[in-house]
Design a protein that fits this description.
- The chain is 56% helix and 10% strand.
- It folds into three domains: 138 residues, YqgF/RNase H-like domain (Nucleotidyltransferase, domain 5, 2-Layer Sandwich), CATH 3.30.420; 130 residues, Orthogonal Bundle (Helix Hairpins), CATH 1.10.287.4070; 138 residues, no CATH class.
- Strands 3-2-1-4-5-6 form a six-stranded mixed β-sheet, with helices on both faces.
- Helix 9 packs antiparallel against helix 10 and helix 13 packs antiparallel against helix 15.
- The chain starts with a helix and ends in a 12-residue tail after the last helix.
- The chain is globular, with a radius of gyration of 28 Å.
- The chain is α/β, with parallel strands linked by helices.
Length: 429
Amino acid sequence: MNSTQNKKIEQVKETTMIVGIDVGSEKHYFRAFSWRGIELTGKPVAFSNSMEGFNSFYNSVVELMQKNELKEALVGIEPTGHYWFDLGQFMGEKNIKFVMVNPHHVHKTKELDDNSPSKNDRKDPRVIAGLVRDGRYFYSYMPTGVYAELRNASNRRFVLVEEQTRAKNRLQKWIAVYFPEYKGIYTHIDAKGGLLVLKQASTPEEIVRLGVEGIIKIWKDAKLRGNGHKKAMLILNAAMKSIGLKAGLTEARMEIQDLIEDYELQTKRLERVNDLIKELCQQVRYADKLLEIKGIGITTVAGFIAEVGDIMRFDSTKELQKLAGLELVADSSGKHNGKTKISKRGRKRLRYLLFEAAISVVGKNEEFKEIHRHYTTREKNPLKKMQSLIAVACKLTRVFHVILTKGISYDASKMLKDIRHPGEQLKAA
């Protein structure tokens, strides 16, 4: 998937026109250059973030290529949030080759022109084009088909989980103030039986007025099992003895009811998204084989595929590790030999997902538990717990890559035979 910088430089030929685009929310600016860095546009050219603007940009590119007798265009973009998505899709449809430049590189390089780091619509396209000419770019990837659907669904799930957790935490806070005894009745704040009661009687005073029979009726109407007279008595007694705050009950009641409704709404939405994710995963070849690994669930599988996209675009596991920011880098210079650490340059969510998966398999999977034990207790260069988990995450990446590209089944015995891993290169601090 990725090429060396030399190979990237070789992509720029005498017949290539290099275009740098500064992407904005409503308006974009571009400047075009020859392979030698001679500007062909004369000044920055603005075009709107619309189909009319995109067509204007395309026509300008074609016209400049014809005028200067050039055969192909190589467009560089600094990915700014989500604003480049539509433009990227348009260029893909028009078969315009476009690449990405690192925003960090743009920030560092722009000072070379005029010794000023200020953002400038005229300066940025020139800087971007220069980075492309020097081979300091990476290839963009816009998932399509089931991979695009999975990425959107996975992103949606991530947002819903955050919103659900936020509503749950706020609910817990309010109940702790107005009905602190509740936590002694239910282990979890979102217990269905408890929420049904609080939704109708949000304060201890209202629960007392309901009485045991009123509480039981709520459960019967909801056809909820497992909550009977004994549990109702516990709730009633707790409400009668509650030390909860008595002031501001009207607003508190409204807040608690609203938070319960928010939580239930997010839960329903989350269930729908999870169902969709399961259906989409069934469409990805060999995805089901990843579930054969004990400790790996559908959320991990879906999240991995959503972040990676089509696994066949990667030639090696190292490329996947780089995408996740898990490749090893040495912090050393001269006679100083510093620590080896991961780069953390890449898709943050993918890195987080693989790390969480590593924790899961170390806790639930015997062979990965043994690998973790080996890394942390071996005689030569033992790893700390965190370093070992990173090594396990890299191991999982290798396993995922092999299974999804070759379609082979997970082999626990092979895992133990192949216990040596590049993660061993991590130096003990």
